[in-house]
Amino acid sequence: MLLVGIQDFDAALLAMMMFVEPVTFIARPYEISSSCEGNCGKYWSMTVVPSAPMSPRYSPPALSADAIAQLKADVKARQPLTIVVLGGGRDAFAPEYGRSTLRPRSLERLHYGVWLARETGATLGFSGGVGWGDRSGPTEAEVAEHVAAKDFGLPLKWTEDDSRDTRENAIRSVALLEQAGVRRAVLVTHAWHMPRALRLFNAAAGGKIEFIAAPIDLAPLTRGGAVDWIPSAEGFERVRYVLREGLARLAGD
Questions:
Q1: The domain containing residue 243 runs over which residues?
Q2: Do residues 62 and 89 lie in contact, with contact meaning Cβ atoms separated by under 8 Å?
């Protein structure tokens, strides 16, 4: 059994690459500090890198300040532009709120979408239904509409609430954008989800709409030293997400 510090996102990156591309392992030694209480010595950390240059299969970087400034200029020039936030789950009923609410992943995406809309002046939309086999309660887009307006103070311009997965997010959102005459859109989702989401949206658009990737959750989890190799709940959760993305790719989604 292999037990490593999963909070080091290198492990999650390895899990993803196992499905999509050859990798190279780079080992580097480092010393434990003098406060290691008897466990001192030389340890090895491992970094995983693609054997080939990074491809669109991996998440693009976060939007830079220059890129955001350019989007703002485009909006001022009245170029049709919108922000598409992808849903990441909702609870049909949250007792503490007395109503449905978004799960953490969806809230994180919506939060960034709202911030980006305020920074650029672009319109904001949300795509998300109720998921496969779940028909109880309001759709995720309906919940997001309430949260955006009541909690974040920025009403959504449009919603798509019939989709059940990322592929349907893409197909149904693209149809709405084409009807509205939108030719450029900013796509917001987590970094581990972005490669597949961007591929599906580009395929659904068939070149008629340019999608600009705006991934979130790119900050490293590592703190340095041996503590990075201690397994954590957050690390296992991230690996789970990445493995799911790999399986989705294998399934053709």
A1: 9-31+42-57+229-250
A2: no
